[in-house]
Amino acid sequence: MTPNEYSKALQKAVADLEDRVQKRDILNAEIAGLRETVRVLSSRVPLSSAEHEAVSRLLDMVDYATPNLRDSIKALLTRVYPKKMAAVEIRDALEAIQFNFDEFSNSLSACHATLKRMLNDDELESEQTKDGKTAYGRSLKMTPPPKYTTTLADLMGDMKRIGEMQKLAEHASTEALNRILGIKPK
User: Fold this and answer.
1) Is pLDDT of 183 > 80?
2) By the 8 A CB rule, do 123 and 106 touch?
3) How many CB atoms sit inside 10 A of residue 95's CB?
4) In this structure, how many other beta carbons lie within 10 angstroms of the beta carbon of residue 91?
5) Bond into 82 cis (ω within 30)
6) CA–CA separation, 48 vs 91, rounded Å?
7) Per mean pLDDT, which of 31-45, 119-133, 160-174 is the most reliable?
8) Rounded distance between C-alpha atoms, residue 23 and residue 184, angstroms
9) Which residues have a Cβ under 8 Å from the Cβ of 24 and sit 6 or more positions away?
10) How many angstroms separate the CA atoms of 92 and 107, rounded?
11) Most buried residue, 36, 87, 93, 105, by CB count within 10 Å?
């Protein structure tokens, strides 16, 4: 591939990834809303034991696949990057997208604790706002890919060696199969 083809491939991959992330976020919000609707309605409607089990299993699968608080904060702050947000703004934004805070007794303190852990892990940056509050933002660090100094000749040699290894593996597999089946070599 030429450098221009690599550049075009990267642009397409970035656009495709942005599209999929946006679709994922929309689906997560829809799933969160439907989860709450099913949870509330299932507590108000008489269900057979089989229906109750099916709803419980479905809600359990949703809970398993739902992003946790840390992942949700990370996604939110990445989406608004480079803007920084105070903990109360983060909590309010997560509530707006129907993040499930049911497992927390205090949603704001849960956000504060998670933000502090993320700050300690260098996932976030913080700054003091004019009114003295702490605002948090994503610390984006792109890990550079490893540097390759491979020439076309090196790549061709690697491909040849891979082909030779595949032939050896096929031959060894054939010999092993023949031994198992009791077929003697000619």
Assistant:
1) no
2) no
3) 12
4) 23
5) yes
6) 37
7) 119-133
8) 58
9) none
10) 10
11) 87
Q: How far apart are CA 141 and CA 104, in angstroms?
A: 30
Question: Of 7-16, 75-84, 112-121, 171-180, which one has max mean pLDDT?
Answer: 112-121
pLDDT at residue 138 is higher than 80: yes
Mean pLDDT for the chain?
A: 84
CA distance 122 to 137: 11
Which token pair is 86? 């105070």
Q: How many CB atoms lie within 10 A of CB 182?
A: 6
H helices present in the chain, as ranges: 3-44, 49-65, 69-79, 87-96, 107-120, 152-181
Q: What does the block give as tokens for 45?
A: 């409607």
Q: How many CB atoms lie within 10 A of CB 118?
A: 20
Tokens for 31, please give them. Answer: 């799933």
Q: Is residue 185 predicted with pLDDT exceeding 70?
A: no
User: Which 8-state DSSP code applies to residue 146?
Assistant: P
